[in-house]
Amino acid sequence: MGDKIHRKGDFVMSSSNLTLLTDLYQLTMMQGYFKANNKNVAVFDAFYRNNPSDGGYAIFAGLQQVIEYIENLHFDEDDINYLRGLGIFDEDFLEYLSTFHFTGDIYAFPEGTVMFPREPMIKVIAPIMEAQLIETAILNIVNHQSLIATKAARVCYAAQGDGVMEFGLRRAQGPDAGLYGARAAMIAGCKGTSNVLAGEMFDVPVLGTHAHSWIMSFPDEYTAFKTYAELYPNACTLLVDTYDTLKSGVPNAIRVFSELRDKGIHPKSYGIRIDSGDLAYLSIEARRMLDEAGFEDASISASNDLDEYLIESLKAQGAKINVWGVGTNLITSKDNPSFGGVYKLAAIMDEEGNFVPKIKKSENIEKVTNPGNKKVYRIYDNDTGKIKADLICLADQVYDVSEELTLFDPNAPWKKITLPGGSYTMRALLVPVVKAGKTVYQSPSVMEIRDYCNKEKHTIWDSCKRFKFAQLPRVDLSKKLYDLKVELLHDAGEE
Q1: pLDDT for 7 beyond 70
Q2: In the prediction, which pLDDT does 9 show?
């Protein structure tokens, strides 16, 4: 089942023509290819080089929006007129654009997949003009959602099974960032979002209580709490830090909860929220007060500039918080506000239909690309179900899991491990998404992707999840691909 999408204005990605959401040089290159009658089919890889926040992994997100972009890719009359007005495009090229549509193939990781640096998360095989045009939009979509999904996964890990709510809309960098950031956060494990439009568009839970202004608008705190409880007796979370958390807020909340109990009302969910002060101390004391009053099942939620580091610290201090509202630091990935995804040419098809590998050589070693038409295998240990390594290989390579498999570090080839036959399984990560311009992949719902992502996170080792000094998993090259890369680098050095 796909996500529930509604037209809500031009700012909503799914309802907009994003064809001109590209860098100008993509179009100038397209015109150059057109004038040269270059119809070569090319392979482009989208990948990233470093994990956000120096972590051990990332979460792939944004595929559904990439699909919607490709399906709606066309130049309408207004687009053509605008490009004509720039004075740099010839009429024959503009005529070509007027009937343009994507005809190539796209392969990608399923959304919610755990991924690691340098492996292709998206592979595009298309006439070079088409492949060139879509670079910018694909990176824009995937970079943003993968960044926020990765941040949310880290926050959820810090929460150790507690509920995490995404509360960042008001400080997101615009409507799109708020909407699709909320989507990404849900994919990575959040239990709900405050963003109502995201709730409608993506069919995800929306959560929220009241603000300090609600309490301040009443003659006193007790009256504010009582009125709210009368309105929402089955979901009654009261904000207790408007005046004095322990002297007034918690006692008034207990008074209201007691009145509900006396009336025979047992809310499905109820509790308090703390939005300021020493969250560890206040939650411990509030927990004691609630328990002594017989409200052991009342939740304590907290907000106030939370991120994974603060949540981890509060947990270590014994904080009695079991629901975390995380806003600005999540929706902006404040400590690492960009995802370094890139899009590089890997091969060109020759006249015989064979892919000729291409490589980008660089003084910066990490910018040297992996050549050829490739695929990615994930290798799991049969005993633990955990990831042993990811293996990047050429598309025509086939493996037999009953046979011994030797892996080596491409940056240090002498570092090898050998997996006995029958001790491991392999899974191809890149799946067909678009074939010959037609979508062949049915995106799951956001909540289904969330379930898949939670399973994915269980396949990585705890050492990979550390916030500092994470152990990076192996991402190896097959011997055939490694030898090809070395050969191309050697040939390039002789030019």
Answers
A1: no
A2: 38
